[in-house]
Amino acid sequence: MITPTQSKMARAALDWSIRDLARQAAVGVSTVTRFENGQGEPIPATVQAIKLALEAEGIRFTEHGVEMPALGGNDE
């Protein structure tokens, strides 16, 4: 699972709005908003959909937050 803060960090790294994430995860905008604001108990399948949508764009979740592979090619 991911945390609300990780979701926000991942969206920032991708320059995605809440609407962008909701579209990619196939969930409602209000669902993403409630999750990221820590309102209520999220449905595990919904959190998984959010996580998978972000991972599909290269985001990796770690114990320290999120990582995104560097853009561009090889620096050799």
UniProtKB/TrEMBL annotation:
Show where the HTH cro/C1-type domain sits: 8-61
Where does the chain cross the membrane? none
Q: Which molecular function GO terms apply here? A: DNA binding
Q: Which residues form a coiled coil?
A: none
Q: By its UniProt entry, which PROSITE patterns does this protein fall under?
A: HTH_CROC1 (PS50943)
Q: Which domain of life is it from?
A: Bacteria
Q: What is this protein called?
A: Transcriptional regulator with XRE-family HTH domain
Q: Which organism is it from?
A: Pseudochelatococcus contaminans
